[in-house]
Amino acid sequence: MEDTIFVPADLTPEERIELENIRRRKQELLEEIQRLRDELSEAMNEVEGLEANEGSKTLQRNRKMGMGRKKFNMDPKKGIVYLQENELLRNTPEDIARFLYKGEGLNKTAIGDYLGERDDFNISVLHSFVDLHEFTDLNLVQALRQFLWSFRLPGEAQKIDRMMEAFAQRYCICNPGVFQSTDTCYVLSFAVIMLNTSLHNPNVRDKPGLDRFISLIAFEMSHLRSQRMMGTI
């Protein structure tokens, strides 16, 4: 049975027309509201679908990043290549340096091995890595402690040498006037590391005293000056 629409009998023809217009407009508004509801529901479904898709992409990216870190810890160069191939790392010294400096999930020994490599690209990464450290107003020991906390020194003397040179340059930039030259900072930094190793290594029985430490620094500075002079001949 169809619904009947009540129309008062005492309405004038003009009032009847106005009432019909009002009822028609009401129906149009109800239909418009329903259309907007349908569009809103469709939009919400699309947003939820996009969020689910983004969540899946994020999960996949995190898995690849985790795999890249594991590969880096086993073989630093292969790990870097894997991350670059999966567009998780750009092939620039600055981007790789930031990745190593952040160090999430990375083995500090692997970081040190990568930074100590002697090819030009790795040396550029090393300098970018050192530049991420802020040594302003730190004394040398404090700066060394901060620097060496971010990775583990490799055992090869040549690698340590390159790292200490980069450190000395950065320290002198952050603290102008503390040392007469980066060479002085370099020698003292290297000597502090050797002293620390000797003092804390149980296999070293003959612990160096203060006089011996000072003599060692003086000898190294003299040797370094001789090398510089030979280089100018």
UniProtKB/TrEMBL annotation:
Q: Does Lipid metabolism count among this protein's keywords?
A: no
Origin superkingdom: Eukaryota
Q: What is the lineage of its organism?
A: Eukaryota, Metazoa, Chordata, Craniata, Vertebrata
- Single Gene Ontology BP annotation: regulation of ARF protein signal transduction
Q: Does the keyword Hydrolase apply?
A: no
This chain belongs to the protein called Cytohesin 2
Give the primary localization class. membrane
Q: Which residues form the SEC7 domain?
A: 54-214
Q: Which GO terms describe its cellular component?
A: cytoplasm; growth cone; plasma membrane
Q: Which SUPFAM superfamilies match?
A: Sec7 domain
- Give one Pfam hit by family name: Sec7
Segments forming a coiled coil:
12-53
Q: Report the subcellular localization.
A: Cell membrane; Cell projection, Growth cone; Cytoplasm
Q: How does it sit in the membrane?
A: Peripheral membrane protein
Record keywords: Cell membrane, Cell projection, Coiled coil, Cytoplasm, Guanine-nucleotide releasing factor, Lipid-binding, Membrane
> InterPro entries, alphabetically?
Sec7_C_sf, Sec7_dom, Sec7_dom_sf
One GO MF annotation is: lipid binding
